[in-house]
């Protein structure tokens, strides 16, 4: 496989084997025909881009997506903050246009709209774009790429801010994508992207690896990528999203002074070896230790007759369950707040997804928290008050196993 940016041959360093599409929840009759695809990650020794070795065609992944951004309170708070901060930082107003790529159900754009700034969303999932439009968030159901960018530019659409959270990691044709960004960005505009930071892989957060995430970015790789489209990264921030994300600020070269954050993070990455394959090769051993810890704990609890349930079935959770071989062998049941997942079976492990009330009814001794990145929100949930009061405990699996 050749690098999706610079075409150099990539070196594979970690494999999760065959995995199902991790956001595709199944009806009972679909279980038997469930497909699996290779999931392994490689490193480009020339431009340092960490990427999947194989991908599933995006049409198979995104057309009927069950993830609705607006389901998490924590996420919504973050969206509001982002809208406030960017509006100030970039001096946006009612003459500006905010274009969001992969805008989902409009969770982010609604806050720009509240501030009186014109908005436009683009999202390939037709079911979700429909919901956004019904809520008054104008959304085009399309994939964003160079051709699409050229088309809307022809319709006089030019953005002061292009925003994309969790999209930069998802697009296999990434060079075409960043050229599209260049095309619709105003000469003095800024493109802002937020995505899980590659550093997570070195901190046991291997569950950010799934077929939708084609890329795991370091800043040094991103600088090379945006150069390909004659764009420059002028600022970078760390955010707590997804257990550790980067937010980058991109413009035409020379428009803004490059903030010292950029240089400092580049130096830090070089010091940490993000430009060397050996750094990434350590991941396999680290994750195998984590597997032993988690499976060891679950086995012990099972042998003591404890009842264990899993809390929520996000993509990362399904990766963890599949890769560690945790299913009905250890778990009594799984619950998820999302109505779109309830009544269906989890990909790969085929656990029936119950609503939260099941915890109240069955009174498990332990809840394995698969959305560990929002642990604080989960352990304080009002719906789990009686679980806590009855002595129920939470198992947090990543980055290291903890019981709370
Ligand atoms: Zn490369």
List the helices and strands and how they pair.
Blueprint: E1 11-19, E2 37-43, E3 50-52, H1 58-62, H2 73-89, E4 98-101, H3 109-114, E5 119-122, H4 126-134, E6 139-140, H5 146-154, E7 159-165, H6 174-184, E8 185-196, H7 199-202, E9 215-216, H8 219-228, E10 232-239, E11 245-251, H9 260-271, H10 277-281, H11 283-303, E12 308-311, H12 315-324, E13 333-335, E14 353-354, H13 357-362, E15 366-369, H14 375-379, H15 385-389, E16 393-396, E17 402-403
Parallel strand pairs: 4-5, 4-7, 5-6, 7-8, 12-13, 12-15, 13-14, 15-16
Antiparallel strand pairs: 1-2, 2-3, 3-9, 8-11, 10-11, 16-17
Helix pairs in contact: 5-6
This protein binds zinc ion.
Residues 3, 5-6, 8, 44, 46-47, 49 line the site of zinc ion (ZN).
Task: Describe what this molecule looks like in 3D.
The chain has 404 residues and is α/β, with parallel strands linked by helices. It has two domains: 61-258, Vaccinia Virus protein VP39 (Rossmann fold), CATH 3.40.50.150; 283-403, Rossmann fold (3-Layer(aba) Sandwich). Helix content is 33%, strand content 21%. The chain is built from 15 helices and 17 strands. It has helices at 58-62, 73-89, 109-114, 126-134, 146-154, 174-184, 199-202, 219-228, 260-271, 277-281, 283-303, 315-324, 357-362, 375-379, 385-389; strands at 11-19, 37-43, 50-52, 98-101, 119-122, 139-140, 159-165, 185-196, 215-216, 232-239, 245-251, 308-311, 333-335, 353-354, 366-369, 393-396, 402-403. Strands 6-5-4-7-8-11-10 form a seven-stranded mixed sheet. Helix 5 (146-154) runs parallel beside helix 6 (174-184). The longest helix is centred in the C-terminal third of the chain and has 21 residues, at 283-303. The protein is globular. The termini are far apart. The mean pLDDT is 94. Zinc ion binds next to loops.
């Amino acid at each position: 496989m050749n690098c999706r940016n610079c075409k150099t041959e990539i070196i594979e360093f970690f494999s999760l084997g065959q995995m199902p599409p991790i956001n595709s929840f199944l009806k009972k009759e679909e279980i038997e025909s469930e497909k699996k695809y290779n999931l392994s990650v490689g490193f480009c020794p020339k431009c340092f881009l960490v990427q999947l070795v194989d991908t599933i065609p995006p049409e198979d992944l995104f057309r009927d997506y069950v993830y609705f951004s607006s389901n998490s309170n924590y996420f919504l708070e973050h969206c509001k903050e982002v809208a406030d901060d960017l509006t100030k930082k970039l001096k946006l107003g009612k003459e500006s246009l905010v274009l969001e790529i992969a805008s989902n159900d409009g969770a982010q754009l609604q806050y720009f709209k509240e501030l009186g700034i014109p908005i436009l969303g683009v999202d390939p999932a037709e079911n979700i774009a429909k919901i956004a439009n019904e809520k008054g968030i104008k959304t085009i159901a399309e994939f964003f790429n160079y051709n699409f960018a050229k088309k809307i530019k022809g319709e006089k659409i030019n953005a002061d801010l292009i925003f994309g959270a969790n999209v930069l990691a998802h697009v296999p044709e990434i060079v075409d994508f960043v050229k599209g960004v260049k095309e619709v960005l105003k000469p003095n505009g800024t493109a802002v992207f937020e995505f899980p930071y590659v550093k997570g892989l070195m901190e046991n957060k291997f569950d950010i690896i799934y077929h939708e995430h084609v890329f795991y970015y370091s800043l040094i790789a991103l600088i090379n990528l945006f150069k390909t489209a004659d764009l420059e990264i002028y600022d970078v921030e760390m955010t707590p999203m997804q257990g550790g994300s980067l937010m980058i600020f991109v413009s035409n070269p020379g428009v803004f002074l490059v903030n010292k954050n950029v240089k400092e993070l580049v130096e830090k990455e070089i010091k940490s070896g993000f430009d060397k394959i050996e750094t990434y090769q350590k991941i396999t051993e680290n994750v195998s230790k984590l597997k032993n810890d988690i499976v060891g704990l679950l086995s012990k609890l099972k042998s003591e007759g404890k009842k264990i349930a899993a809390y929520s079935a996000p993509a990362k959770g399904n990766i963890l369950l599949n890769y560690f071989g945790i299913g009905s062998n250890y778990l009594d049941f799984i619950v998820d707040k999302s109505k779109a997942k309830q009544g269906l079976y989890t990909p790969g492990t085929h656990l029936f997804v119950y609503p939260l009330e099941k915890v109240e009814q069955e009174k498990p001794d332990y809840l394995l928290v698969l959305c560990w990145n929002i642990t604080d929100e989960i352990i304080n949930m009002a719906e789990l008050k009686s679980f806590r009061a009855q002595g129920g405990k939470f198992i947090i699996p990543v980055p290291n196993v903890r019981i709370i």
